[in-house]
Structure formats: structure tokens, C-alpha cells
Specification:
Structural class: alpha+beta
Distance between the termini: 28 Å
Strand order of the largest sheet: 1-3-4-11-6-9
Radius of gyration: 17 Å
Helix content: 25-40%
Strand content: 25-35%
Order of helices and strands: EHEEEEHEEEEEEHHH
Shape: globular
């Protein structure tokens, strides 16, 4: 199935209501404190079994995930590639700044409080259980440069292929993606390892 939500052309109240409904399982969008404009955005992607891959664009706004939303929505990991724009704030239990070319690793078991610039992004949303159930607090909000590049390549490939994946290919695609993510996210920081070990890990993940 495809997902497609666009708020362009809607009046501000309806656009905000639509955008809020799209984001409800994840965040509450709020205006920047210095802006009177209601936040809006768009999402275009695919639902592949229990995972979602989507291009997401939005204007300047704040994103909040509080304890009440955590308790009432599914437990997922959001991998959020910023192709342009970025944000400052708290994700995965840490204060962080994310800019273009970086993937934010957002553990949705934690509260989120960020202020985002106008951004074009690529989102991959995966249930925690499909990644081996990582304990909240064990995922860092950013990856080292090598793993960041590998994850970007995988996400872009998945998004490009998503329109052509048949129903009989979904299970294998999801399995391949979650296996890749488990190996990528649980690798020790490649920058801290010796060159041969790091190269071996990169070759394994890139296969």
C-alpha cells in the first residue's frame, strides 16, 4: 500500500489538522515559538508489511513526543535521514543537532522535543520487536560516518524500489531490511576499531 498526504493548497487550519493526524502515532507538531504559522508538511511513501519508508517534507516547526503519547502509541524506531534542513533538540535521551546528510536514530520509547528547520527527509519506521527489541537507552541518536553512509544507501535503495515491490516480495524485503538494521545498529563504533576489522564489517554490511 502507498501513503500520500499533501497539505499544499489547503487552508491553514485544515492543513494543520491533516498534518497532525498524519504524525499522531509519532509526534505532536507545534509552531515555532517565534512563528504564528501553523505547521504543515507532506508524506509520500510505501507501507511494506510492518515497516514504512517515506519521503517527508515540512516547514519550520517543533516536534514533541511526551509520556502520554509514548504510552498510547506503538513502540517503533524511526530512522530519519535529513536531505536538507535539520533540527536541534532531544531524541533518544540525548541533546543532539542533525543536519543535511545525517540520519537521526530516534527511539520512540523516549520523549522527543525538537525544533526543526524547513526540511526534506527520508523516513524509515520499524517496530522495535523486529530489531530484536533493543532496550530503551541503548541506541545512540547518531551513527559514526561509515555506518551513516551505509544506512543512507540502504534507505535510498529501499525508497527507490518501493514502488516496484510486489506483494510476493514484501516479506523478503522486510526481512532483508531488518536483518541489515540489526547488524548495523549493534556494531561497535567503526571509527574506534582497527582498520582491518572496520573494513571487514563494512564489506559484510554492504553485501
Amino acid at each position: 500500500p502507498r501513503l500520500y498526504y499533501v497539505t499544499t493548497g489547503l487552508d491553514s487550519d485544515k492543513a494543520f489538522a491533516t498534518w497532525s493526524a498524519v504524525l499522531f502515532p509519532l509526534f505532536e507538531p507545534r509552531p515555532w515559538t517565534r512563528s504564528k504559522n501553523l505547521p504543515t508538511g507532506s508524506a509520500n511513501g510505501a507501507i511494506l508489511g510492518d515497516i514504512v519508508i517515506a519521503k517527508v517534507s515540512f516547514g519550520p516547526q517543533a516536534f514533541v513526543r511526551d509520556a502520554q503519547r509514548i504510552a498510547s502509541t506503538p513502540d517503533h524506531i524511526l530512522l530519519h535521514l535529513y536531505m536538507s534542513g535539520g533540527f536541534n533538540g532531544v531524541i533518544s535521551g540525548e541533546q543532539v543537532s542533525i543536519g543535511p546528510g545525517k540520519v537521526a536514530v530516534i527511539d520512540l520509547a523516549h520523549e522527543v522535543r525538537t525544533r526543526a528547520f524547513a526540511s526534506n527527509t527520508l523516513s524509515l519506521i520499524v517496530p522495535r520487536s523486529m530489531l530484536g527489541g533493543p532496550i530503551p537507552g541503548t541506541l545512540k541518536p547518531r551513527l559514526d560516518a561509515r555506518r551513516n553512509e551505509l544506512l543512507i544507501a540502504h534507505m535510498r535503495s529501499l525508497q527507490e524500489r518501493s514502488t516496484q515491490i510486489g506483494e510476493d516480495e514484501v516479506a523478503r524485503t522486510v526481512s532483508d531490511t531488518t536483518d541489515f538494521l540489526r547488524r548495523l545498529l549493534w556494531q561497535p563504533d567503526l571509527a574506534s576499531r582497527n582498520s582491518q576489522d572496520a573494513d571487514d564489517d563494512l564489506l559484510s554490511l554492504a553485501e
